[in-house]
Amino acid sequence: MKLLDIFFLACGIRQCVNSTLLDTNPYSQSLFAWYQAQDPSNFKGGFRAKEAGVVPFVPNFDGDFFPKPLDILRKEAPKKEAMITVAEMESVGMIVFNKLFAEPYSNFGQFVDETYGLDVTDYYEDVKKNLTNFYLGNVSPLDRNATNKQVCDYVSDSVFNSGALDSVRSYAKYGNKAYFGSFNYFNKASTDVADVLQPFKVASHSSDFKYYFGSGVMTDFKPNTEEKKVMTMVEDLMANFVKYGDPNGKNKTKTWKPYNLTQPLKYYKIGYPTSGMADNFQNGRLSLYDDINKNSKKYQEIVYGFPKLSKKVIFKKSG
């Protein structure tokens, strides 16, 4: 298979090796035509969109793919169960490949630039200053290990955790039954290249993949006895949810409780040898992003349909 074919498949465009069969879906044809029309230099060194954010190839909030603000769409949608999980430290498996991580303390502002921008909030410089103070305010530039952790926490929170928590709250707000969890199991003896490279030996983005599907991230997965037990556990959770809309299945003991807005930081911690409900998701850091979103014109418009902004907010330091 040609590399180009693999690229198109990864983008959701079905194309055979000889490039003669293209999915009849008009959206696939349109997307394929768009790629063909681009100058190849646009893709060298990574494609960058003009909008803030780290994932450029995603649906645009332009009134087409999402015809109404998200809060209205959620309210109008039929009730549906949801199971939303993150890993203990989402970014740690990827951040080692970011060139900014070579000097995380001095480059922290650039990490923020990758996530936020002038198109996101009217108070961009204030947000940048407050994020820096929150994550690095109590850290010495000479303490590389502490700095690494804080930067990993920032990327995990801004790209993954805050959105996951926002989603589960949105489900619960309109009467949907949602299960919120964190995959916290990590085999410190793992030989998977992605695991070996991590500066912190904790579950990260996609490290749970092999336990659900039996396939390694960057190398073959050969589970030991303990890992096989973890596989059985998480596969049961997933299968139960698919079959019954409840990860507990038909068990009388419901260890994974549905998310409740009255206990907003309660979640199910997936670990070994025990799993169970836990409190203070991500140590309560994510209230910071609620404050940022109150001042984010893009967030307010996408979620509620109007850029209603509150006054600027001063944030506390992390820890």
From TrEMBL:
Domain of life, source organism: Eukaryota
Stretches assigned to the Carboxylesterase type B domain: 30-286
Keyword annotations: Signal
Signal sequence, start to end: 1-19
Pfam family of the protein (one): COesterase
Protein name in UniProt: Carboxylesterase type B domain-containing protein
Organism: Caenorhabditis nigoni
